[in-house]
């Protein structure tokens, strides 16, 4: 069984976090005629823009490094808002994809949400393969935002027995 844990990201994780972000853009950048240096510069610029946006939009954002069997494997960004646990970003490095890591992370978030009677929200691009996981976990599309879909999971109604 794969052990999946989280640890709070720190300053020493800067290079790792940049590499995780770059891995999420690799497929689309492979279709460009850019040099590796141009791709790196683009990813760096986009990483910084994303970081600035998240810092402004989610001042209490928790940024964790996903650790799989003792190896750094991804990142999980979560903002806990009143009545809403927002999964701002979940990204897993390629060697760790398809191992159930994302499902384990999200199941833990859903369990927390059920306990606190909070909904869980997430945004996903229309063609992102992770959407299948979100559907399986019971997320529903609540808004089409053009490029993104806003999906929501609501805890089951409390038992009346």
List the helices and strands and how they pair.
Layout: E1 4-8, H1 14-29, H2 36-57, E2 62-68, E3 71-81, E4 84-92, H3 101-116, E5 119-125, H4 130-136, E6 140-144, E7 148-153
Identify the notable features of this structure and list them briefly.
38% helix; globular; 161 residues; seven-stranded mixed beta sheet; alpha+beta; Aminopeptidase
Note down, in words, how this protein is organized.
The structure is a single chain. The protein is α+β, with helices and mostly antiparallel strands. It has one domain (4-153): Aminopeptidase (3-Layer(aba) Sandwich), CATH 3.40.630. The protein is built from 4 helices and 7 strands, in the order E-H-H-E-E-E-H-E-H-E-E. The protein has helices at residues 14-29, 36-57, 101-116, 130-136; strands at residues 4-8, 62-68, 71-81, 84-92, 119-125, 140-144, 148-153. The chain has a 7-stranded mixed beta sheet, sandwiched between helices. Strand 4 (84-92), helix 3 (101-116) and strand 5 (119-125) form a beta-alpha-beta unit. Helix 1 (14-29) packs across helix 2.
Within CATH, the superfamily carries the name Gcn5-related N-acetyltransferase (GNAT)
Structural shape: globular
H-E order: EHHEEEHEHEE
The count of β-strands is 7
* DSSP summary: helix tally: 4
Structural class determined from secondary elements: alpha+beta
CATH topology: Aminopeptidase
User: Averaging pLDDT over every residue, what do you get?
Assistant: 92
How much is the radius of gyration in Å?
Answer: 16 Å
Architecture (CATH level 2) name: 3-Layer(aba) Sandwich
State the end-to-end CA separation: 35 Å
- What is the CATH class? Alpha Beta
Q: Beta-strand percentage?
A: 25-35%
Weakly predicted, low-confidence segments: none
